[in-house]
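Can't paste images in this forum, so I'm doing it all in text. The chain is below; anyone willing to post the predicted structure tokens underneath?
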Amino acid sequence: MTPVRSRPPSSPGMRLASPRDVTLPDGFTVELAAGTDRSRDGRLMVGGSPLRLVRLTDAAARRLGDGRFAVTDAASAALARRLLDAGVVHPRPARGPVPAGDTTVVIPVRDRADQLDRLLSTLRADPVTADLPVLVVDDGSKAPAALAGVACRYGARLLTHPYNRGPAAARNTGLRHARTSYVAFCDSDVVPEPGWLGPLLAQFADPALALAAPRVIALPVPAPGLLDRYEEIRSPLDMGAVEGPVVPVSALSYVPSATIVVRRAAVGPGFDEAMRVGEDVDLCMRLHEAGWRLRYVPSARVSHRHRTDLRSWLAQRAGYGTGAADLALRHPGRVPPLYAAPWSLAACALLLRGRPGPAALAAALTGVTAVRVARRMPDADHPARAGTLLSLAAVRGTAEQLLRCATRHHWPVAVAAAAANRRARQVLIAAAVAEGLVDHRRSGTSLPPLAHVALRRLDDLAYGWGVWQGALRRGTAAPLMPRLALRMVSRWTAARPQP
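Text version of the structure:
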């Protein structure tokens, strides 16, 4: 057991060094992402998140061929890098043996000796992780002897904090004591599936990759209740089944630190110890701002026992919400409750009027945008159809975001408006029910529709309450401010240098 001296909290402006080399090695393979639309001649692609319009040169289109190619020279390495960064292809690195001597597992824990025992037993039973060095960081446990006994039984080194300093500080202590190139952080309440580490370490064949994260699914329980079944499909730790790059203000804007693997040279001092909530989101954003790449790899999976006691569940959601203010102050414009184009916001506002005249103006706005988009992609197979579909998708996306804002981040404002205005009250009730029913259908949950709607609204109310608490505590409206998207589709051409 090694006692650890206290260190002062990290400053909010923890800058990280940029990667020295972003060139993909020979043999590194990329494959067209499932959600990417490609023209018949192969030169025009629309995909990624945020959405991008990508034009390829003839040589680049031939290289991509049927949607997959390997790096063989400088030109193919540059093309693969640009397509990866645009999010229109996914990496397919060759899986080699896990470098056991080059990876350390760090487990921050406070009490929970039974969960630590389960995790260490799982790690030692997996041939890939059986012999890896493990650092257990006791973050001020009330019963340290129990943790010490579990760590000793599995051959893990125990580091101790004399008092509780938070998960960020506990992970940083493990990071400082690790002597390997890669560090796998595992919370004590996760149960990794066999072979989970290999797909994550394979991603580090990209020299610019700093972090890889698995999918965090619900740990099966014998007799699941309503909250268990809701958490199976709507846990904030589960980022879904679709792989992709982790990029702020996108479909994958962060990954939770319940389990992640990091390149030790990339993360510097690690997590910001001044943050008790949202420190994982902050790390993702700082890595991105420094030029590092991050990947979400759902083929690697770990299970997690989600909270299903109603009181602790609501407290957890509110706690997550309180971190939004700190994140918004540290990373302006990176955590907006709404991100949409001005014209689509105007179209949705007109449609909400529920009258023929405003609806006609909304249709005209959408039509004008469709024409503008079509003109930007004359080489599409069907420019008019593509412009129309993209414009309608933008309106739909903005409408869904507005519904979420009204029931999540801005529900106190929405409730106040509903109390003062009958029309606002009708719209809010209809929106709250409709959004919940749509989400119920999309999720494929076994929950009854009304139970799902009720739990979703409780989820949003708790999180939104936390956002307002954090905003008031910090004296800022930053986490409540929307961000305007000045371009509906970003343009990019493979023949140009990467911006």
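Residues 35 and 47 are 6 Å apart (CA to CA). Confidence is low (pLDDT under 50) at residues 6-10, 494-499.
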